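The record is given unchanged here:
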Amino acid sequence: MSKRSTTRIAAVFLGGALALSCVSVAQADTVEITPIEQVQGTGANSPMVGKDATVRGVVTGAYAEGGIRGFYVQTPGTGGQLPTEGSPAIFVYAPDEVSSVQVGDYIQVAGSVGEYYGLTQIKAQEVTRLSEPAESVKPLAVPLPNGDAAREQIESMLVDPQGDFTVSDNYSLNQYGELSLAQGTSSILPGEKLLRQPTDVFAPNSADAKALADENERRAIVVDDGATLNFSTAKNTSVALPYIDAKQRVTVGAKATFTSAMILDYRYDLWRLQPQGQVIGSNDADIALNFEQINNEAPEEVGGNVSVGSFNVLNYFTTTGDQLEGCTYYRDREGNPLTVRQGCDARGAANAENFNRQQSKIVSALSKFTADVVVLEEIENSARFGEDRDASLAHLVDQLNVAAGSKVWNLVPSPATVPADEDVIRTAIIYRAQAVKPVEESVILQDPAFDNARDPLGQAFQKVGGNQNTRFVVVANHFKSKGSGPNDGSGNVDSGDGQGAWNADRVEQAKALVKFTEDLKISRNTKKVLLAGDFNSYAAEDPIRVLKDAGFTDLGAAADSQSYVYDGLSGSLDHILASPELASKVTGQDIWNINAIESVGYEYSRHNYNITDLFTANQYRSSDHDPVLVGLELNK
């Protein structure tokens, strides 16, 4: 922030109440008043930067606490229509004076004009409340304009945004108290309300992908909380998170309806809508929006007589951090360890208490997941901790059966031959014994292409009561992630085409997977194959194209939603792909939106991060990826 103003407002007691000292009308008439529109100007920066100015306006937003330390003023009577000159509103940085003004006051401000990282402001030297009446400010009721130039025209104005808005991102709600909206629908993807990952629908680096990226940027707007607090720091955890609580969620894909006006401003390199006062908690009077509440209690019906799904279990480790040497932790607001940060091989919960929280959410979700066969990603490879490779998997299956009240679930055992050097997380498969039965043992793909990823696990199944015609193979996958790329000039460097880092390796993994499936078709005597899991590739990216070129159909692409949200963009990293012989047997597909669309604050790993504890032992945010489900009609 700018340096604090050294001029304090004069205070006197009027009728027993503290009030701003007011100049007389005669005194005020001797002061040269500069219209706010003139201070703002019509360009990106004020033409009066570095000069002193005295303006008059009605206070439209004031923030005595929370870090903004100032208020907005707008020319009386404006807002009924778009300004033809500069914006009639401006931010006043007044850390010493802001506590003595309130929304609706008519005031005079003298100070120096400046630009604070793109936001025109006046650094107050003197603030005076005026006794004369002023015409009220009207919220500007228009669709939010696209582009910097159009938004500069109404910078700092009180607005009543028109049109339809959809929540597109909520990741920062738990940290900075902000969320993002998408305005209207896409002109490139008709009917699309969300902001789609360009490479989820168009080839990387294509003109269409670039056009969608540009449109996403134009459609996005941040809704802030009237503060600059970082809720992850200890001094702010006692301030209740804005907008959400354990039951009232702000979900990606939810309709957002404005109930009162907000202020359009520009901070931290983004256009934002600020409430007229700091929002504290989920029911604050300054909340200017209602959010549709979306409840996804169970996946949609997908039909068929066998169903297969994919579920990421978010580093489910029965080996907790306190059982190992060297672990460091992420901690709650009281300093209690929650999850392992680094220093050891464990990746999940810090201790049994937190593991039980994590498990309660995963068991709740999997118990409602209607798949007969479930591919799992990010489960502990217990062999790395001196136990049977399947120990953690067996524990999860036991807990699922306890929740079901009977032995509903079985695990696919590890094969006799396993890789000599594996990651601490692995893929796995569980199944409902009343629906399907394994055929022969599982097999792990051991190929150098997966030296930096999780080895695929294949298992043949047959429908209970069915014959050879009902046999199919499921392969569990977890390709190399997109982050932490090298800087070696190779194809694994993030080229900026939208595919992230390690794309060359994911392509090689896809090629190795195709060969693996051809071998499985022969050894397991069926051409019906499903590839399921987290491919760390959006639907139009190179690795998925390799699989499609080999004849596989991406079944998740037919669903009405996506499995992952990153940086406000929705797309699917999780896929179920079918060979031609099985694609014709598909009866339906669904992406069960319970995780990616919800705030990270609902994860077990954020328990007691804030005075508003968001943890609930339900399916919401049991992971960061959404489960994918398909139905199959397998005939005798």
The first strand starts at residue 11 and ends at 14. Confidence is low (pLDDT under 50) at residues 1-28.
